[in-house]
Write a structure and sequence with these properties.
The chain is built from six helices and no strands. With 162 residues, it is mostly helical.
Length: 162
């Protein structure tokens, strides 16, 4: 982070350079996970088959859009804090914590199980960042919004597995 970026972070959120760098790193980890999650939802949307095709097809598409919106929130916050958003496909692939997508999978139940696990991992990282962001309530608020959304997505995905 340059001095100008550190000054921007301090001006925007009243943070030290070290606080801002820590927050930016967490935001970029969240961005990698959310980018991967959005792509997994979209992949499942394209490939799902079975008796619940239409329901899952629509739900996966909606969840992909939500994950992209959350990714946009964390990316913009990283830049607001004086950092850079690492939102390329390459950056997401290198940093994601999510399990690999099961290539060539079409079964709705298998895809649901995979996506439940992905949402769990993404939510776990977001919840760690909630605790780590107590010096910056604006960033923490973004994480809280995402945690609520991921929790709801997991609940809806799991409901299809019962």
């Amino acid at each position: 982070m340059t001095t100008a970026q550190a000054n921007l972070a301090q001006a925007v959120a009243g943070l030290s350079k070290q606080q801002a760098e820590k927050l930016i790193a967490g935001l970029n980890q969240a961005l990698a996970n959310l980018t991967d999650l959005a792509l997994d939802y979209k992949q499942a949307h394209w490939n799902v088959v079975g008796t619940t095709f239409y329901q899952l097809h629509e739900m996966f598409d909606e969840f992909a859009s939500q994950a992209r919106e959350w990714g946009d929130l964390v990316a913009e916050r990283a830049v607001q804090l004086g950092g850079a958003a690492h939102g390329t496909l390459e950056a997401a692939a290198a940093a994601t914590q999510l399990p690999p997508y099961p290539q060539d999978e079409h079964d709705g139940q298998a895809l649901l199980r995979h996506l439940v696990e992905c949402a769990r991992v993404a939510d776990e990282q977001i919840r760690k960042e909630i605790e780590a962001s107590d010096a910056d309530l604006a960033t923490q608020d973004i994480y809280l919004e995402i945690a609520r959304g991921l929790e709801k997505q997991r609940w809806m995905l799991q409901a299809h597995l019962r």
